[in-house]
Amino acid sequence: MNLIMLILSGLSGVFTKVMDELLDDPALVPNNQALIYGLGTGVIMLYTAMMLYDPTMILIVGVLLLGQYLGDTIFHNSYVPYEHGCYDNPIWIYGTILMIASMVFVYLKNPEGLLVLTEFTLKNVIFFLGLFIGIAGISAEAFLFPEESSYPKTVSRIFIILGSICLLILSLLFSSLFYDSVALISADIIGYCITSIFFKLYTINKIDTNDPKHQSFLINTITRWHYSLPTLETLLGHPLPAWPSTTPEVPAPSHTSSE
Predict the structure, then answer these.
(1) What CA–CA distances, in Å, run from 22 to 128, 209, 229?
(2) What is the pTM of this model?
């Protein structure tokens, strides 16, 4: 595994998240259009370099784009009480088009590069299983933590970093079972999430906790479930039995006179 490529992969994650934060909150850097387009260009170039280094990266990029689309549109806007500005922003649309064009370019340059994925091997089983887990994980994280900033979301990113570090180590130690693209995307996710946590810790004390954009969707959902439990009694048509009390019962006073 090339160390320089790992560093560049981590840098691509940093660039992507910085660009995302600047789009979400333009006040962080006023007049930031040139910076955003510069970061976007860097991201396209770095991902193209990763795909040229290992063509199996093309499928991983495809999963990232699909997961981002599902998370930021279908799941997010269907269940969260505010619109999420991602694909509503033309910069994301242009970036996605350019990324797809880059994927096509890399494939046409080396169409044989993906033929290794047609073989039935343990390495390919692990790879495709990882793709399935990846798209499920991206969609689940976007659904459970759609808010811009909250402590639960920050904690979720910490767990993603830990998981990505473990995956990176495994892919380097057992290189015969993992394509280089797995190590590259692990480094990319680590860079992305570290940058995400930095921005969230920077802004978390400045946010309006009454704004739905910064309320934990997961905790709010659990709270609503908790308060909706009495409706079970309505469905059943009678009160639910109470749990046995752990407090010792005190005998009732006798009404029989001792006289």
Answers:
(1) 33, 21, 41
(2) 0.79
